[in-house]
Amino acid sequence: MDVLAFDNKRPRPRGVSERSDGRVRVISVGPEKTPKGSFAKILSRLKSAVLMHTSAYGVLRREEYDVAVFTSIAAMAAGVPGRLRLSGAVKNLVFVLWDFFPVHQVEIARLPSNPLVKSLRWLEYLSFAKADNVAVMSPANERFFRAYFRSYRGKTLILPPWAQTDEPSAADVSKAPVFTAIFGGQLVKGRGVETILQAAEILESRGAELKIVIAGDGALRETLEGMAASLKLRSVKFLGSIPQPEYRRLLKTAHVGIAATVTGVSVPAFPSKIVEYCRASIPVVACLDPASDAGDELLEYGAGVVLPAGDADMLADALEGLSSDLAVGRLTDLSQAARRFFDDKLSSTHAATTILGTTATF
Hints:
This protein is α/β, with parallel strands linked by helices. It folds into two domains: 178 residues, Rossmann fold; 167 residues, Glycogen Phosphorylase B (Rossmann fold, 3-Layer(aba) Sandwich), CATH 3.40.50. Helix content is 41%, strand content 16%. It starts with a strand and ends in a 5-residue tail after the last helix.
């Protein structure tokens, strides 16, 4: 397996390196140091694009691949996957679409709504147009994709986000002594954390005994911490960004995980944090926008509860009800269902099987 690596957030030495077992080769064209500032980040992206089309392409073009996989945002790959497909080096090109760029960023106000930004839709389309298959996260995503990118003539398949299947033993991890709900993710626009804080205020006014842990960082962290302080919340704790192994261990101490979106969007969201919650065998409280169908299978498996996005009262009621379920031992069934959902639909094993299944037609 060859991996073309370029990531501004995870610098590594440039060049070609092999894993000790010889099964994975990494061709790195990203920065060797983390770029600071907007201009440096843009310059780093441009350098990576040049290296992808020169040194990296020269290495990859000499090989033959049964399948190549790249993920959204497609434009970040600078057209190299499509070029490899046209060259014949790749037999089957699969684009995994996790993010409808730029419409989603515009709708949650992370990008301005202007003609220049909206034109990026066509850049994104051209960046994956040569893909034989596009993997989307849910049936609602598939319908939106076909309406948004009407010119695409390839195949689509349903493939939710995934995480590694193997799971270290957590025998030494105990649940928190008080009912604990966790939110793990970026503290940026579109994540619905404000609703979680409002629900915490409601629960504290009722005298509910629980904790809400918020793990993650982002542009809104100070604003959200200020909101929690102004509401005088005693039950909420911000942990900031923590390494993945520590985060996964932390999840094991929680009783439920909260995944929240926002209202007023047309793109069907599938919060990826659902994957990690189910991997850790904790039930999911999903606060979803009307466009999303991410809660359908969650309910089918009995792995959690689904609520409307932005409704703090309903979120407070749900958390209070789950706390009562814990007291009488009813959370166990939800926890087991969450893990079944992960094993069946959200694991890396399922993702690999689904992607490799696309090669059967080639």
